[in-house]
Amino acid sequence: MTTTYASRPAAPAARRGPAPSPVVLRGLAGLAGLVAVLEVLPRTPLVSADYLPPASTIGRAFWNLLGEGTFWSALGDTLTGWGIGLAIAVLAGVAAGVVIGSVPVLRAATASTIEFLRPIPSVALIPVAVLLYGTDLRSKLLLVVYASFWQVLVQVLAGLQDADPVAQDTARSYRLGTWGRIRYVLWPTALPYVMTGVRLAATVALVLAVTAELVIGAPGLGQQLAVAQTSGAVPEVYALVLTTGLIGVAVNLAARAVEHRVLHWHQSQRGESQSR
Amino acid sequence: MTVRIAARRALFAGALPAVLFAVWWLTSAGSTDFYLPPLSTILQKFPEVWTADRLMSDVLPSLLRLTAGYLLAAAVGIALGLAVGSHRVLRDVLEPVLELFRAIPPPVLVPVIMLFAGIGDTMKIIVVASGCVWPILLNTVEGVRAVDEVLGDTCRSYGITGPTRLWHLVLRSASPQILTGMRQALSIGIILMVISEMFASSNGLGFTIVQFQRSFAIPEMWSGVLLLGLLGFLLSLLFRFAENRALAWYHGLRRAQRDS
């Protein structure tokens, strides 16, 4: 997005000192602050402990969950739906995006259709999924794939469009073929966008997997949450919300790590590692 | 000449949808599957189901809740994003907390928010806002961080600081990224609008579609799905229009770079 006016020198070895401890410490301080607020707030008249139990109570409920077999199988169900759905969506999104994005006629012909289909909220398909597949894994997959496919596709298309015109012309004057241009000019430009797309899709896939469980009643953490809510087990509700959050964090960290590895040459990643 | 270009563009825009529509029409024409009724039946039901009355009583409340939640999320997200993005220490302290909150799938907050806010409109607005705020916030942070260093130095050497710098440099440079976040937030907002209505509501689009599904009024349900799609499409069109106006300078810049 930004234009680099001067090339940066590679980070000298001396800068890669010990682990960036101040950053970690500050982050831990932030988390500790959050826990402290959650512990104190329910004990004040501001918030009723019936609605928001103190952090220690939630922690105990979370610990109890970890000892239950149903919790682990629900976790497995959620992750299965998420993983399979995401894999299908990413493969299909990248394949479709590269084909459509590198052929101008196709891009022009599909633009309106993509614009029409993309914003259709995947939850509109919930009733359809229920009717067709019931609480089966397939109804979860239908929602997950539909929602995350567009995230990837749109990012791939945006990335291909962002290709540097000078580089494109250079490639053309060096007579790179279509495949060569995709491989050496379009793909490197698009890759940051693709990674963003995958990261977004990973999050959206988790959201839709849990939603399908929560609303449709497909087995998984969302269903456990619905059960805990109807039986008025408030600490368990928070413990399950915390669990989904932790899964989300794990998903994000994994996506970041992959992104960092794949894009180590890119300006955004280099700038980050240098300033630390 | 321009007429020909416009006609070409219309042809491109219309061809594939027409083909897909025709395929759906033809393959479903003789359908006896109860769950997959012929398209003609669905379209026939559409004007019967979605009368002006119903649009007022179900679609309008949904849209109002969506708008309120979305605007709330945009205001909070951009303000917080600017603060977090421009202060290194603040970012370090808050980042893990924000990551945790963002990572919670917004629909699981529906039961929690119901504890505090009951099942009224407030709950739905908070649910929409709580989901929309994260893409806006995090994209703003990224956008602020990616402000061009040379421009930043230029500002510094000209003594441009404070609100002027924020408005002319930071917000300007971050705006393409902020709008990207807002576009992502829009689709999340629609999802949450529908889900919050599926949970506990007496009106709204999500509520009505689920009612149709539960009473096995299948063509009516499909017409609702179509309406939701149409609504999502119109909202994204509206967004694109607004985005093109707000980012005219940016698109012009990119075009100039491409053409030169």
Tell me about this structure.
The complex is a heterodimer of chains A (276) and B (260). Chain A has 276 residues and is mainly α. Chain A is globular and about 70 Å long. In chain B, helix 5 crosses helix 6. Chain B has 260 residues and is mainly α. Chain B is flat and about 75 Å long. The longest helix of chain B is centred in the last third of the chain and has 38 residues. The mean pLDDT of chain B is 83. Chain B has eleven helices and no strands. Chains A and B meet through helix 1, helix 4, helix 5, helix 8 and helix 9 of A and helix 1, helix 4, helix 5, helix 8 and helix 9 of B.
In short:
By secondary structure, chain A is an all-alpha fold. Helices cover 76% and strands 0% of the residues of chain A.
Order of helices and strands of chain B: HHHHHHHHHHH
- Mean pLDDT score of chain A, rounded? 81
Biggest contact = A-B, 67 and 71 residues
Number of helices of chain A: 11
Helix content of chain A: over 70%
Structural class, from secondary structure content of chain A?
mainly alpha
Write the layout of secondary structure elements.
The complex is a heterodimer of chains A (276) and B (260).
Chain A: H1 21-40, H2 55-66, H3 69-102, H4 104-117, H5 126-133, H6 137-161, H7 165-173, H8 178-216, H9 221-230, H10 234-262, H11 267-275
Helix pairs in contact in A: 2-10, 3-4, 3-6, 3-8, 3-9, 5-6, 6-8, 7-8, 8-9, 8-10, 9-10
Chain B: H1 2-29, H2 39-49, H3 52-86, H4 88-103, H5 109-117, H6 121-145, H7 149-157, H8 162-199, H9 205-214, H10 218-246, H11 248-259
Helix pairs in contact in B: 2-10, 3-4, 3-6, 3-8, 5-6, 6-8, 8-9, 8-10, 9-10
